[in-house]
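Consider the following input, taken from an annotated entry for Lrp/AsnC family transcriptional regulator (Kribbella qitaiheensis).
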Amino acid sequence: MVQAYILIQTEVGKAADVAQQIAEVQGVTLAEDVTGPYDVIVRAEARNVDELGKLVVAKVQNVPGITRTLTCPVVHI
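Applying the prediction step yields:
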């Protein structure tokens, strides 16, 4: 299982709506609207890196109101 944090910037005033919509996406375990340089932080998981990429590109980035994403895979050292 691959896990990642997805840091999201949204259009002004859209953070809560984006977080709510992303929380319903299969593979997303947590979606919170936050303050700071990013507007929404998401925790997601998938079977492998390819599935994670598909989740981000096909599902998360298609949510209206998102302007930029940064995917940070979790590593266990």
